[in-house]
Amino acid sequence: MMSVISPDIEQWLCDYLRDRVYDVEGLQFDNRKPEAYRGDYPLVTIRDDSGSGDGLAQFDRSIGVNIYGWTRAHDKPCKDLARRIQALLMDDAIASAENSPVIAVDHSQCNGPYVVPENEPTAHYYLIIAYSVIGEIQ
Question: Could you tell me the pTM of the whole model?
């Protein structure tokens, strides 16, 4: 029996961004914020918020992206990084990147970046990216 597994879009996007954003000192990418994170370095987290499938091999995926770093009083570098990440993830060229599971960007479902109001000293921006992705047939 054949089955279709949705791609690990979190890992793929972390790797994709890591290869393209290498000039921000200390920047790290992960699929979650470490419990011990206190804003000592810039951090981008990628979270697959899932979505529907077509019953064949295509899946719709809503991706939550958090950008942390610097301070709330000095948040411009964080905001600039969030806008840069958004541009990379919304670029239609992502579908033709090597080993990309992305078929298309659904621009109508993308939002942000916007500031996340928190009681933390670290600046925090959030954005949503929507994709159609192809699964792996096994």
Answer: 0.94
